[in-house]
Amino acid sequence: MQTSSWTPTRVLVTGAAVRIGRAIVRRFAATGAAVAVHCRHSETAARELLAELPAPRTGAHRLVQADLADPEAVAELIPGLVAAGFIPDCLVNNASTYRRTHLANLDPERLRADLQVNFLAPFELMRAFAVHCRRGVILNLLDQRVAAIDPSAGGYGFAKKSLRDATEVAAVAWAPDIRVNGVAPGYVLPPPGVAPEKMTRLLANIPLGRKTEPEEIAAACWFLATAAAVTGQILYLDGGQHLVPTVAAEIPETR
Ligand SMILES: NC(=O)c1ccc[n+]([C@@H]2O[C@H](COP(=O)([O-])OP(=O)(O)OC[C@H]3O[C@@H](n4cnc5c(N)ncnc54)[C@H](OP(=O)(O)O)[C@@H]3O)[C@@H](O)[C@H]2O)c1
What we know:
By secondary structure, the protein is an alpha/beta fold.
């Protein structure tokens, strides 16, 4: 059981090289934690990030590369780190692929691919963390859509809702040794390849009328990682978007 002064010392962040993942890495490393920076294609960015991080209190930061679309690579990720002497006490499931798909176009291949990266892989990492690391905290990056009905969210939407459920179930199943919490962002950064202007109409319909900064997501992750009395919590950082009917942004379906 964690006390109020507990802080993580070894953190695995998936999809950590760029965007929100990079902000999370910087936030945790600033506290002296050692970070395993996971990436798939963004190796150069990951190495640049590692080079700028302050030295951890104990151990060393490291790079870990794995394609979360490959179940074997997922299964080896945490056991590989543990065998190398890096036993995470905090897992941040951040990596994700966001593709908008109208329901009728969600064929089995596309659905399987969306579920693999956005639910099956993070769940397997949660399970491996419970089996191999045994204590600490898990943070799952969700989406405010877990509180909404978005007909274009496709397999991504189903996966994030499943990950929300897994967050709450695991919070009960693995207490008191492991706390499990979720962070549900609204609009932070436009999906890769989508111009920020496309998001303007979306912002107009959000109660606070503003987007969330990656650093605000990282600060929420740090809070949930260190709040020893908090488990099974889903924290929305979305300017209140989940409270109002969603007006679909003018973002085209992803091909
Ligand atoms: N951006 C937003 O406004 C927003 C809104 C709501 C929720 N969220 C959630 O917040 C989290 C971070 O968002 P983001 O926009 O920063 O994410 P992102 O840029 O879309 O993706 C983060 C990283 O995930 C990794 N990734 C994707 N497919 C992978 C695969 N098959 N194997 C391994 N890694 C893979 C990529 O790593 P490489 O670059 O190394 O390939 C990518 O850089 C996500 O879980 C997302 O669902 C974000």
